[in-house]
């Protein structure tokens, strides 16, 4: 008896905009990715996770924004991001919003490249007062990009990184991480995303463009 074909592995890209080393944003991103991977494994799905730390690509991001061209290896990161089945995006909060480095990365992506993509958003900050930035800054950014942001967003303040004992704030953080990871995993399984078409994969020949242009019948070929 022939066994049914196994579903291809899902792709998850994890973007961290932390600027320090070690970074609490990277720590939160890793835990969100692990929770998502664990939920997918329980659902019988394989996932390939790619971690992107924007700190190491700051100069490339500025260059891409100024020139309109993404240098390597930024180009490969952008291609992996738009082709992924889902995205985890975590930023530190500065001045009540996401960091400039975080915004730079999503500014270099093509319009509609994240359309329909399940996204789990997270943020870190010194105090819980910064948690409002997830709903008034980070979530609207991905809504504008057309992404499907999962309901649970995860904010981690400095006090949340304690030991997970009863009555400890870290226990609440762990529960939020698990819930958010499961929501993202469910979204990935239910709706396998189709990456947007690349308009440059099948370019129209220059001769065809000239032939279809109105009013050029009397033009001499160059």
Question: What's the layout of helices and strands?
Answer:
Elements lengths: L9 E7 L7 H19 L4 E7 L4 H10 L6 H10 L2 E9 L2 E2 L1 H8 L10 E8 L7 H12 L3 E2 L4 E4 L11 H22 L15 H7 L10
Parallel strand pairs: 1-2, 1-3, 3-5, 5-6, 5-7
Antiparallel strand pairs: 3-4
- Give the overall silhouette: globular
Report the count of strand segments: 7
CATH class: Alpha Beta
Per CATH, the superfamily is Flavodoxin domain
In short:
Helices cover 40% and strands 18% of the residues. With 222 residues, it is of the alpha/beta class. It has one domain (10-212): Rossmann fold (3-Layer(aba) Sandwich), CATH 3.40.50.
List keywords for this structure.
222 residues, alpha/beta, Rossmann fold, seven-stranded mixed beta sheet, 7 helices, 7 strands, 40% helix, globular
Q: Would you give an account of this structure?
A:
This protein has 222 residues and is α/β, with parallel strands linked by helices. The chain has one domain (10-212): Rossmann fold. It is built from 7 helices and 7 strands; from the N terminus they run E-H-E-H-H-E-E-H-E-H-E-E-H-H. The protein has helices spanning 24-42, 58-67, 74-83, 100-107, 133-144, 169-190, 206-212, and strands at 10-16, 47-53, 86-94, 97-98, 118-125, 148-149, 154-157. Strands 1, 2, 3, 4, 5, 6 and 7 form a 7-stranded mixed beta sheet that branches. Helix 1 packs across helix 6. The longest helix is centred in the last third of the chain and has 22 residues, at 169-190. The model has no long low-confidence stretch (mean pLDDT 86).
């Amino acid at each position: 008896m022939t066994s049914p074909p196994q579903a291809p592995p899902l792709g998850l890209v994890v973007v961290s905009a932390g600027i320090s080393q070690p970074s609490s944003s990277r720590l939160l991103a890793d835990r969100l990715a692990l929770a998502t991977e664990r939920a997918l494994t329980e659902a019988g799905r394989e996932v390939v996770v790619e971690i992107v730390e924007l700190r190491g690509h700051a100069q490339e991001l500025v260059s891409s924004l100024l020139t309109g061209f993404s240098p390597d290896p930024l180009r490969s990161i952008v291609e992996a991001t738009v082709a992924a089945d889902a995205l985890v995006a975590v930023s530190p909060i500065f001045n009540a919003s996401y960091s400039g480095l975080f915004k730079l990365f999503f500014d270099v992506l093509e319009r509609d490249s994240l359309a329909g993509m399940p996204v789990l958003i997270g943020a870190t900050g010194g105090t819980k007062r910064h948690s409002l930035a997830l709903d008034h800054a980070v979530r609207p950014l991905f809504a504008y990009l057309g992404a499907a942001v999962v309901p649970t967003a995860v904010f981690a303040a400095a006090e949340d990184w304690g030991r997970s004992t009863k009555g400890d704030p870290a226990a609440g953080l762990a529960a939020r991480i698990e819930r958010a990871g499961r929501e993202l995993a469910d979204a990935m399984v239910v709706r396998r995303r189709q990456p947007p078409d690349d308009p440059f994969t099948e370019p129209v020949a220059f001769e065809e463009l000239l032939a279809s242009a109105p009013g050029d019948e009397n033009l001499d070929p160059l």
